[in-house]
Amino acid sequence: MGKQALQRVLGDHQAKAIGRMLRTSPRKLNLVAQSIRGQKAEAALNTLTFSPKRVAKQVKKVLQSAIANAENNHDLDVDDLVVSEANVGKNMVMKRFHARARGRGARVEKFFSQITIVVEEKREEEEKPAAKKAAPKKKGAGNAAKSQNSSAGKARAEKAPEAAKETA
What we know:
single chain, alpha+beta, CATH 3.90.470.10, three-stranded antiparallel beta sheet, 3 strands, 27% strand
């Protein structure tokens, strides 16, 4: 008799992978995570492949793991996967000292971070009806501001010759 299995936290159309102990600061890792949020899985892989950031290679491995989890463990279609979440968190911090002048030492912190990538299966048919038409823009609001600016410009132009007369 062992422990009972935990309930599945994610939905039926989701799969996740976690990358821990990535040797970069969470702030730098979040820049890479922002670039793939909301993208299709294939486009996100391309983005990470050609990214100049060093940590992009490790994030790509985590994304590939999430895609493999979706395909093998949850029977999801790889072509319909979208990166629904890419969360970045803190991890361990190594503390080191750097020798400074007059026998002092400066603290150096080497940050580690972790990333959680959740991929979700979204069919193309589901996305099309969700798009709404944009509301038409109001035409009168912009013209009123222009007319006020032009009248202010005229008032300044009228005052300029008067000021020139007074100085003469």
